[in-house]
């Protein structure tokens, strides 16, 4: 008698291996069970009974080639120090327990730092210690667990298909069968309409019916296979997804057609079934192409606001957008800036923090000639780098969207899923009632009615409305220099009721300021050294002072650079040790009502530069437009400009000065504890903690690479006066989504009304499915264009 394996669930007639009062089909399944139990991962089987993958019996020496340096460099995403990152494609990932196990690899092997599954793309990214665990050994380890990675030139190149080729083949087969099925069934339709019997047709009708059966069978079991898989995996995980009623409708029509042909009761519905699946697959292709277009646009556009400083061989600086970087260009990266591209270090002392990539905070020292990977953050003096790879936007997007920096909240997607889930049960109930009614009144018609209900009720338009609308809004905002991390951020922007502004570099210009020096005259020697030191910092006051100093631009290397956030920094230039920062940082008495940068050399105070900040244009109008929001202003500077700010922002609720990065974060927490939905606007440097803590963190970027994964939005500094428009457009986007929910539900109610009363054929129901999706796309495109045109006077 056959039994099922406890691990993989497969049935076998062979003698089972008994272990720990459980039965296994092979030593591989038994070994995986032992590994999981030894590492206290027995919950794997509780998540999903018999959900394991049977280990592959292939010779795992096939992975030895991965340890060849050239192949290793091609396959891995990142390799620095002892840590490497690799993304493996694993097609057999199929359920929640697979995800749970693959994201628990670090508990099975101490040389694995972390692993993260992308279920949609069927891949897993793994960070591991390549000194202790070879890449080939990692691949073998996964294979022994039953998750054999697929490694080929396509996966190594990290290229994503712009469309699903398999879906195209399935659609073509369904279209071929539909066309020929209609041709073969024409004589029978003609006979029914004309009421006459044709001898030739009567003689060969069984042959034609058999051919239609042969045409329909691959359509049902191959072209519709994705629906079967989705429904089966959902039911295995005790979820009744929207593909369940579709599969029931297809099987019912197929089974009824076979019955009619075998009993010579009629021709069946083979032609209708092929047409139904053809139009359903066409709708599915439309949806996938729509999602793909949005995803591509997102990956390509996301980081456009981040500019980088390009330098020529004479030292002249020019700020350019990331997408304009070319191989061979030289760029400058300052303290706390992200490396935007793979590059070679030309000049400077590299101290690279790769925590955004590896999750480890340890810094890696670099010297001229070393390779530096995109995504690392420089901690220390300014670097000059030569670009060796073009900007990979999707890779940077991956960094920005890393799980460690996400703030989990539910949104319209969750609402859509909940609606779809309940909708499925409602449809199954309606189908049952309609089936019972028509079974008693017209048994033959019952099959058409039930199939039509199951097909027309598919809420494809409902599932498409939120991602398409919000994705379209993201694209429009991006074209207007407001770059949003994900669609959930659009929803959060619509709920904001409190705004917290950092002052310096956010509502004031980074470079423009009225500067007055107070102290003894500084020599040309010191001015050049100071300018070289100032070049290392990203602080707005440092940038202003850098552009203010009138001396020949000549760069000298900075040694022992160290910055204390919110206070200042030190560094040695041409043998002289300089301190630049606040009065307390330098050790000087401060005046309460002034913003100043103090400077000392070798412990000797040289003087101070007093700043009167120049505010961005139209700030007064912007704050008056935001009178529906509670407004707070935080600043690391002193209160010298409090009176100016009160005049500029008459509706301000609170102003706080001398705020450290921790003070800002705690202020945000206090507001959230008071049930406020907070958006924080800062420069992305000293404000990183507050940006991450807020419901929406908006980093204001001018001309530097001030990217931080802690922010949800990056906006151009020259667009801040348009802030109200972005908030209003977000609110409009949510309204549009809710309206499209109404449209799709309206489609379903009308379609169900016709289907239940027997006035809708399954084929027409299948045609209505893609039409409803197309109408939603047309409506959202028009609605978002009209609403955005109200705010932005540019070609959308």
Query: How many strands, what sense, and barrel or not for the largest sheet?
Result: 7 strands, mixed
Q: Remind me, CATH topology of the domain at 476-506 and 616-728? A: Rossmann fold
Characterize the overall form.
Answer: elongated
How many distinct beta strands? 30
Strand percentage lies at 15-25%
Q: Whole-Å distance between the termini? A: 68 Å
CATH architecture of the domain at 476-506 and 616-728: 3-Layer(aba) Sandwich
CATH homologous superfamily annotation of the domain at 476-506 and 616-728: HAD superfamily/HAD-like
- Strands of the largest sheet, in order across it? 18-30-29-28-19-26-27
- Please state the average pLDDT score: 78
Unreliable segments (pLDDT under 50, ≥5 consecutive)?
A: none
Account of the protein in words:
- InterPro entries: ATPase-cat-bd, ATPase_P-typ_cyto_dom_N, ATPase_P-typ_P_site, ATPase_P-typ_TM_dom_sf, ATPase_P-typ_transduc_dom_A_sf, ATPase_P-type_domA, HAD-like_sf, HAD_sf.
- It is found in: Cell membrane.
- By secondary structure, the protein is of the alpha+beta class.
- Among the domains are: 3-47, no CATH class; 60-152, Alpha-Beta Plaits; 160-241 and 249-281; 307-405, Distorted Sandwich (Calcium-transporting ATPase, cytoplasmic transduction domain A); 476-506 and 616-728, HAD superfamily/HAD-like (Rossmann fold, 3-Layer(aba) Sandwich), CATH 3.40.50.1000.
- Strands 18-30-29-28-19-26-27 form a 7-stranded mixed sheet. A 6-stranded antiparallel sheet has the order 10-9-11-17-12-15, with no helix packed on it.
- A hairpin with a 2-residue loop joins strand 24 and strand 25 (604-615).
- The relative contact order is 0.08.
- The model has no long low-confidence stretch (mean pLDDT 78).
């Amino acid at each position: 008698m056959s039994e099922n394996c406890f691990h993989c669930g497969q049935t076998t007639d062979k003698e089972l291996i008994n272990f720990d009062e459980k039965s296994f089909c092979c030593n591989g399944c038994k070994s995986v069970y032992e590994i999981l139990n030894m590492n206290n991962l027995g919950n794997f089987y509780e998540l999903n009974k018999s959900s394991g993958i049977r280990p592959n019996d292939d010779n795992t020496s096939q992975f030895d080639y991965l340890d060849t340096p050239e192949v290793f460099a091609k396959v891995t995403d990142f390799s620095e120090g002892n840590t490497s990152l690799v993304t493996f494609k694993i097609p057999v990932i199929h359920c929640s327990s697979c995800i749970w196990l693959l994201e628990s690899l670090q508990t099975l092997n101490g040389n694995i730092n972390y692993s993260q599954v992308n279920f949609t793309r069927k891949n897993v990214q793994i960070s591991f210690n390549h000194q202790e665990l070879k890449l080939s050994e990692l691949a073998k380890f996964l294979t022994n667990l039953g998750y054999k990675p697929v490694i080929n030139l396509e996966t190594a190149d990290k290229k994503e298909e712009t469309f699903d080729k398999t879906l195209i083949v399935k659609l073509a087969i369904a279209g071929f069968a539909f066309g020929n099925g209609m041709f073969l069934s024409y004589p029978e339709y003609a006979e029914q309409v004309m009421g006459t019997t044709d001898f030739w047709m009567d003689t060969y009708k069984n042959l034609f019916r058999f051919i239609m059966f042969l045409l329909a069978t691959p359509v049902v079991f191959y072209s519709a296979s994705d629906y079967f898989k989705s429904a089966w995996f959902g039911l295995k995980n005790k979820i009744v997804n929207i593909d369940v009623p579709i599969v029931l409708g297809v099987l019912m029509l197929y089974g009824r057609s076979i019955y009619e042909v075998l009993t010579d009761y009629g021709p069946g519905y083979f032609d209708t079934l092929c047409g139904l699946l053809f139009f359903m697959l066409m709708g599915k292709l439309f949806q996938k192409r729509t999602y793909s277009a949005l995803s591509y646009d997102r990956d390509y556009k996301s980081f456009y606001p981040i500019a980088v400083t390009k330098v020529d061989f004479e030292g002249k600086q020019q700020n350019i957008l990331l997408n304009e970087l070319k191989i061979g260009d030289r760029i400058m990266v300052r303290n706390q800036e992200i490396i935007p591209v793979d590059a070679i270090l030309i000049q400077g002392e590299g101290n690279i923090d790769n925590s955004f990539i590896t999750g480890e905070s340890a810094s890696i020292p670099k010297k001229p000639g070393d390779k530096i990977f995109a995504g690392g953050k420089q901690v220390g003096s300014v670097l000059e780098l030569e670009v060796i790879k073009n900007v990979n936007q999707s890779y940077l997007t991956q960094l920005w969207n890393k799980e460690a920096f996400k703030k989990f909240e539910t949104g319209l997607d969750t609402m859509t899923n909940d609606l779809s889930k309940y909708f499925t049960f409602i449809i199954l109930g309606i189908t049952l009632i309609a089936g019972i009614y028509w079974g008693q009144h017209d048994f033959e018609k019952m099959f058409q009615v039930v199939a039509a209900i199951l097909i027309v009720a598919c809420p494809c338009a409902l599932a498409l409305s939120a991602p398409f609308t919000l994705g379209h809004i993201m694209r429009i905002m991006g074209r207007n220099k407001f770059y949003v991390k994900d669609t959930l951020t659009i929803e959060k922007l619509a709920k904001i009721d409190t705004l917290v502004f950092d002052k310096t570099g956010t509502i004031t210009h980074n470079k423009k300021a009225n500067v007055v020096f107070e102290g003894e005259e500084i020599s040309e020697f010191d001015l050049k050294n100071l300018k070289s030191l100032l070049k290392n910092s990203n602080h707005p006051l440092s940038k202003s002072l850098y552009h203010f100093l009138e001396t020949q631009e000549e760069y000298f290397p900075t040694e022992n650079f160290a910055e204390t956030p919110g206070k200042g920094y030190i560094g040695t230039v041409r043998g002289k040790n300089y301190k630049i920062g606040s009065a307390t940082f330098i050790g000087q008495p401060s005046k309460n009502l002034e913003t100043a940068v103090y400077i000392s050399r070798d412990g000797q105070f040289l003087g101070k530069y007093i700043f009167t900040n120049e505010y961005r244009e139209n700030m007064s109008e912007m704050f008056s437009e935001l009178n529906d929001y509670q407004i707070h202003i935080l600043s690391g500077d002193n209160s010298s400009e409090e009176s100016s700010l009160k005049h500029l922002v008459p509706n301000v609720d609170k102003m706080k000065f001398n705020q450290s990065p921790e003070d800002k974060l705690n202020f945000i927490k206090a507001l959230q504890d008071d049930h406020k939905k907070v958006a924080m606007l800062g420069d992305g440097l000293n404000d990183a903690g507050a940006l991450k803590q807020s419901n929406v963190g908006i980093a204001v970027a001018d001309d530097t690479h001030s990217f931080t994964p802690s922010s949800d939005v990056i906006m151009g500094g020259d667009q801040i006066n348009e802030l109200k428009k972005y908030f209003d457009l977000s609110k409009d986007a949510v309204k549009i989504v809710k309206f499209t929910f109404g449209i799709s539900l309206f489609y379903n109610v009308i379609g169900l009304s016709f289907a239940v009363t027997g006035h809708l054929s399954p084929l027409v129901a299948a045609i209505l499915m893609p039409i409803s999706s197309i109408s939603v796309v047309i409506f959202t495109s028009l609605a978002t264009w009209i609403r955005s045109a109200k705010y932005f006077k540019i070609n959308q």
